[in-house]
Structure formats: structure tokens, C-alpha cells
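The instructor's notes for this session suggest beginning with a concrete chain rather than abstract definitions. Hand out the sequence below and ask the class to guess, before any prediction is shown, which regions might be ordered.
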Amino acid sequence: MSGLRTVLSSIGVIGLVGVGYGMWAIISPGEERKREMLKNLPEANPVRMEETRKRSALMLQVLKDAAETNDNIARGYGGQK
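After discussion, reveal the predicted structure:
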């Protein structure tokens, strides 16, 4: 009886994995849809990508300045007294 239970549970697990894979195959986009989505990403627009680079450079400069100061900028303006 224990052997039958093991076989049935193994078949059940394999069945669930198969159903999961089938659902994944149905939901995942096709090649054409993937290409269309890549065209619509913000990184595909050169102007927007340059704005993102500038914003990132500014944020890195702010973080660098904050790391170099001894003031606790999280407590507000004016530094520690």
C-alpha cells in the first residue's frame, strides 16, 4: 500500500509541475511581443536615456558630498552644533 501511495504522489507532483509549465508557456509573451516591449522601454529613447544619465550623475555627486562631510544631513540643515 505504501508503494502505491508513493507512485500516486509522484504522479501527482509530476502532473502539477506539468500544469505549471503549461500555464507558464501560455502566459509568457512571444518573440514579437518581446521585441515590441523592448522598443517601448525608456532606455530605447536616446533623449530620455541621457536625462537618466544626468540625473544619476547628480545623485552620485550628492551622495559623494554627503559621504565627505561630517555633518549629519539626515537631521536637517545647519549641521551639528
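Then share the key points. The CA atoms of residues 4 and 10 lie 10 Å apart. DSSP finds three helices and no strands in the chain.
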